[in-house]
Amino acid sequence: MKRRQFAISVLTPVALAACGGGGGGNGPVFPFPVPPPPPAPAPAPTPQATAAAALKRAASYMDEVVSYRGGYVWSYSPDLTQTFGEMEAKRTMLWLQPPGTSSIGHIYLDAYHATGDERFYQAADRTAKAVAAAQHSSGGWNYIHDFNGEASLQDWYETVGKNGWRLEEFQHYYGNATFDDATTAVASQLMLRMYLEKNDPVYRTATDNAIRFITDAQFGSQFGVADGGWPQRFPHNPNAVASMPLPNPAQLPAGARAGMEDGDYTLHVTFNDDVMGENIKFLTMCVMTLGRTDLVANITRAMDCMQRMQWTSPALAQQSGWSLQHLSRTTGGRAAGEPGGARSYEPRSLATHTTQTNIQQLLGYFTLTGDKKYLSQLQKAIDWLKSPSIQLPANVATLNPLLAGRNVATFIELDTNEPLFVHRYGSNIHNGAYFFDKDITNTISHYSSGRSVDPAALQKRLDELNAMTQPQIDAMVAKSPLKATAPRALPKYFAAVREVDFPDLFEGAVLKTPTVPESEAQTIVAALVNGNYWTAPVPEIVNPYRGDGPTAPYTGTAYRSRHVGDIYDTSPYPADAPPEIAPYVKRDKPQFITTANFIARMGRLISFISPVS
């Protein structure tokens, strides 16, 4: 039988009838069946799909390979043999300070919001569970946590931490939690976002504990002027350091001041790193998302404390602003509310950058509440930032290249309105010390003695708010997150674009993403090493711990304006700007996996994949 005839014969009678055949040999001749055309090739993935796939590979690698039990430090050598947070870190550690573990959790959740892919939620959940595990029993967070246990963490403090000359907050282990560097604030926000995402009770408990920590730590009415403020750490450790050693005191220049001028600074009302603003922001998020209107009272007390703490010199009326910290109680014969010294490189003074931040905060508090008392004293503070005596000289870049591009001094002496500049002598924590005087040259590099402030912009905003009519104020306040009568959603992204701020929490506000061109997205994807991870020049490297440094005097100048001292100093420093003394050698910054770079590149791809306009 011919192949054609066989093909016809296997057709069913019905099929043959339908074709008009099935009779004698004189019927029509049928053609062979025509095979279906091959399937069309799959369409090329869209640029957004390609970016999303890369996003997923990068997140999976960080989650599965780089993290330790979901926790992160800041920087990793590609082979993971070197791990740094703000200092050298053990592999079993996680860092809570941004851009550490909490920040990574936020970017994973942002990626989940951008793509809907559960793999990103799984990564966010694993990271957030690590943050929850690191939560102190008081409800807050320390800078760092060690999954290897308390003894391992204490060992780190007694070795690496103790020898970080410029990192006094790590030189002693207090066993409590901190508001510094937004450590507790960013972790608390992650716990809140994770709870709101899928109502996981683990995160509701962590959020409630964070709220309890913030409200428990807040100074009460018994503290008078300090009512509503927050300390730097909580619960207070009675063994907290109240003074710094002054080794080889003969090296202290005549007329210079040194040390912690107002004792244990963890008890002071803290404005440094916007502690108050960060706490108010998180509590505000809880009001608008959880309906916790009871927290409005805590928020109001805090806003009132900031407004009340504006200090005006009794000897010089034009000097009016804020310090990094203010006394929460009478200390050394000085009254509560007065500016206080803190770490040994933070003299008792007014601080120009803190004053600018607090002015901005109080402008924001007016928009939240409509209460003009928050504007009432700001003109004095803005005028003070314009004071001729606190401006840096026009030739500052020649006098001190470290201050180039800055327009005012950082620290301003009380009652004289004259700048103070911070210096150090020695080579490590055991033979050297910080001091401050009025010499603009040879200042320390890791904590600038100059700042950039913009009193014109502050003035413009103050004038705009003061010009508002009452109907305009009422309409503005009606959209305030503090006036929410039903739960409101938080912004879609927290880490992908920028830090969420108060204006983003108003009803109808939209936190927009930047425009990311396709070419940039392609470049970011192509930069993935082996298609899995990004590297970037690591900002700083460290000397490994090798024991306590020498106590003998060092009278040279190699370390006075560098981020690090001798080889016994465990402080981080940029590889391309080491001290100019052996055995240090200037070299290019090595390529590391860094959380800051990971968050930045993830954020750009997220904005490309799912923009918000």
The span between the termini is 71 Å
Shape: globular
Sheet having the most strands: 5 strands, antiparallel
How many H/I helices? 17
Global mean pLDDT: 95
- Secondary structure class reads alpha+beta
| Low-pLDDT stretches | 1-25
Helicity level: 25-40%
The fraction of residues in strands falls at 5-15%
**CA gyration radius, whole angstroms:** 30 Å
Count of DSSP strands: 20
Which sequence of strands runs across the widest sheet?
Answer: 7-17-16-15-13
Structural write-up:
By secondary structure, the protein is α+β, with helices and mostly antiparallel strands. It contains 17 helices and 20 strands. It has helices spanning 3-9, 13-19, 47-66, 101-115, 118-133, 150-159, 183-198, 201-217, 275-290, 296-308, 352-369, 378-385, 396-399, 455-466, 470-478, 518-526, 595-609, and strands spanning 75-76, 83-84, 93-95, 144-146, 177-178, 233-234, 257-258, 269-270, 311-312, 320-321, 325-326, 339-340, 350-351, 408-409, 411-412, 419-425, 433-437, 450-451, 536-537, 591-594. The strands form seven sheets. It has a five-stranded antiparallel β-sheet with strand order 7-17-16-15-13. Strands 2-1-20-19 form a four-stranded antiparallel β-sheet. Helix 7 (183-198) runs antiparallel to helix 8 (201-217). The protein is globular and about 110 Å long.
